[in-house]
Amino acid sequence: MFPRSYSLAKQLCHKCEYSCLVNFRVAKRNYVVYDKYFNLAKCLRRNLSSTKKPEPLEKPKKQAIIDVIAPKIREGEKDTLLKDIKEKSLEGVNVGGKKKEAPVAAEPIAKLKEKILHKQQGSAEDVAGVPTPQQKKRKRVDFTASSLERNFITPVRAMSDFLLKPSDLETLPKTKRRSPYEAEPPITVYWRRDVEAKALQVWGSRENLIKECIKRDIERKKYQQNIFTVKRRLRDYRREMGKSVEAADVESGLMGRSGKVVLMAVGINSMNFLFKLGAWILTGSHSMFSECIHSLADTINQLILAYGIHKSVQIADSNHPYGYTNMKYVASLISGVGIFCVGTGLSIYHGISGLIDPQPIEDLFWGYFVLGGSLISEGATWYVAFMSVRKGAQENNMSIKDYIFRGQDPSVNVVLLEDAAAVIGVTVAATCMGISSLLNSPIPDAMGSILVGGILGTVASFIIYTNVAALVGRSIPQENLDKINSELESDVMIRAIHDVKGIDMGNYLVRYKAEMDFDGRELTRAYLDKEDLNNLLEEVRKFENIDQLEEFMLKHGEAIVDMLGGEIDRIEMKLRKKHPEIRHCDLEIL
């Protein structure tokens, strides 16, 4: 068994440095192994019947426990430390028949432990000859911390959000950052924490700043009440100066191809309505009434289409950053609903009324005359709309059927379908009126009114279906999407693309979105092409600690990230050059 001093020393050193504890355990394990082998050798010596006397085994060399606990303490200090351990071990032993109660105090143990560790560290420094240098703890990223203080802020936002003047910003530290806009020089930015501190210094307190912001926001809203007047004046000024208003590439509002077709349809249908209204008053024909309602519905709907075309080329603003291109689909949808409710509903209702309460037919001469004129005018409008659709289909390399079913030009499609329904309706109405005159019965005329209402309902349902599909968000044709994808994948910086979307925005515009797997090695190689590798190598060789290495990595890492943004801008410009229909290009990094 080990002496009592061993137990006390074990208790003192149980929480010591790792090296001391390891040495203690190794010594204890070696002692146990030697003791087992020694006992085994004695048993074998008794049982062997050999004539040769075995050589006695050498007992393990005894080692002082103080050498096991603290092997690095100097010889002169071992006696003092061993004396302290023995004094501790005698506490609690019977002395003169009385047991001495002396629990081990925490404070002496801690002092003794500190003394042992201090001596070991001193010995290590003496052996090395120089003290161990202290490494600076590297700062790690804390993803839970708020990063607003580290954010940059532009001068415009500093003046709008914090109500500072340009003179207030002159004394603040600033830096240059890559511009978020393509082919633009770097922009000047400030640290957000510096701007906030300057704003509090100027306005006195955060409450005063908030009150002033609210006051200016009210003034801004009052100014926006006259925003349409301001835009109109600006448009007139640009026209006077010879500058054109920014619009879509193919369309130019009511003066474009679609706008001219719609305006011509408005004029013709309004005249047809007036003539048909007079013919119905003279004849009292149910079919003529249906045609009168049909022309009225067409006129109102095409006025709505004209407004949608005019609104669709309006310049994007802060409330509608992607513009108003979908207004053409909205106006076409309203037009389809109007045809269905007004044209279909009234025509069928008037036809059913004629079947329930038939009225004698009057002279239909003027009715035939007006229907003949309507057939010619509606046919002319339909022909103009058809030629516009044909030209648009050729420009987009599509068939006329696909062009109509996809609703590429919703305004012209509505005019085309409405006039087609008008031509068919005029033919049906004239046929039913002729049968009624031949049989001298109002029933065929009433049936003609119901048939015209069914034709209008079919056309209205198709218009509603195509425009709803466009407003929900319809993809561009797959072959066009494949061309854009192949152009993007062929770039040297891109390994793969995922989650690709191409949305038709109307007015022959496309919004393209893709997630890219960027090639980091090619990006780094492109960055190194702009640097002098020999200078970088000399800079690295001069590093003496990890702090210099960290500063080097942070500087070049930020430069590589800036270069990544520049490469994305380059790719977007290349896509827009090859595919001009792409108005908004959203490229994301995986």
UniProtKB/TrEMBL annotation:
Main location: endoplasmic reticulum
Annotated membrane topology: Multi-pass membrane protein
Subcellular location: Endoplasmic reticulum; Mitochondrion membrane; Nucleus
Similarity section: Belongs to the cation diffusion facilitator (CDF) transporter (TC 2.A.4) family. SLC30A subfamily.
Keyword Transmembrane in annotation: yes
Domain Cation efflux protein transmembrane span(s) in chain numbering: 263-472
Annotated catalysed reactions: Zn(2+)(in) + 2 H(+)(out) = Zn(2+)(out) + 2 H(+)(in)
Protein name stated in the entry: Proton-coupled zinc antiporter SLC30A9, mitochondrial
Keywords of this entry: Antiport, Endoplasmic reticulum, Ion transport, Membrane, Mitochondrion, Nucleus, Transcription, Transcription regulation, Transmembrane, Transmembrane helix, Transport, Zinc, Zinc transport
Keyword Nucleus found: yes
Residues spanning the membrane: 261-281, 329-352, 364-385, 420-439, 451-473
